[in-house]
Design goal:
CATH topology: Spore Coat Polysaccharide Biosynthesis Protein SpsA, Chain A
Number of strands: 12
Distance between the termini: 39 Å
Strand content: 15-25%
Oligomer: single chain
Radius of gyration: 18 Å
CATH class: Alpha Beta
Helix content: 25-40%
Number of domains: 1
Order of helices and strands: HEEEHEHEHEHEEEEEHHEH
Shape: globular
CATH architecture: Alpha-Beta Complex
């Protein structure tokens, strides 16, 4: 325990790079969710502001689609999001987009976090815990326990009921030693494997992932109902 405490104490002034992946097509939302209004501000602006306000975040690389590249860059400039150092075009898959962002982070970055552009309610506590966990164990992902019963299905029929005490819902930002996640995603792209979760690429290489503390409030804007839910969370925080 003393070793862990000493490591965390040394990390108090440590900073990290963050890759924000915002290159999805928003098909389930029906419109571009990144620019939907969330209590007076676009979803993407709230995501970038939340990360920028974290003292442990040194730089942010934003990865987005070519057709909204200029719009995203203007959003960063107009709102003085100075920690967003680069806005780059993503690839055809999440793996390719994350890798495009990773190639643009500082070469001396000790840790890198990959975050969904559509998770605007992330907090500094979640970011720090993921970062500290990755510093200790190399790879980390915030998670929350499942509250619903989960069943494995096959063509509409229940195969079995899973033990939810052994399951967790994983969120972002996921944190890594840069060399590990770069190697994992490079291999995934080379093999044509499309992971929806960055940690899955690391797991495929046999590298263990440690879970850090997530939050039920750290939701991803995916469907129309998520906007009023996020607004309610923001109001509960006094916004």
């Amino acid at each position: 325990m003393k070793k862990i405490s000493d490591t965390i104490r040394k990390l108090k002034n440590t900073t990290c790079s963050v890759v924000v992946v915002a290159a999805g097509s928003s098909t389930r939302m029906g419109e571009d969710k990144l620019f939907m209004d969330l209590c007076g501000k676009p979803v993407l602006e709230r995501t970038l502001r939340a990360l920028s306000d974290c003292q442990c975040v040194d730089e942010i690389v934003l990865v987005t689609r070519e057709e909204i590249l200029e719009k995203a860059a203007d959003l960063c400039h107009d709102n003085r999001l100075a920690k967003v150092t680069k806005v780059v075009i993503g690839g055809k898959s999440r793996n390719e987009s994350a890798l495009a962002g990773l190639s643009e982070i500082r070469r001396d970055a000790k840790l890198v976090l990959i975050h969904d552009g559509a998770r605007p309610l992330v907090t500094e506590e979640i970011v720090r815990d993921a970062m500290h966990t990755a510093a200790l164990y190399k790879c980390a992902a915030p998670a929350v326990p499942l509250t619903d019963t989960v069943k494995e299905t096959d063509d509409g029929s229940v195969v079995r009921t899973l033990d939810r005490s052994r399951l967790a819902a994983v969120q972002t930002p996921q944190a890594f030693v840069p060399e590990i996640i770069k190697a994992a995603l490079t291999l995934a792209v080379k093999n044509g494997v499309d992971y929806t979760d960055d940690c899955a690429a690391v797991e495929a290489m046999g590298v263990p992932v440690r879970l850090s503390a997530g939050s039920p409030e750290n939701i991803k804007i995916t469907r129309p109902l998520d906007i009023p839910t996020a607004e309610a969370i923001l109001r509960s925080r006094g916004e």
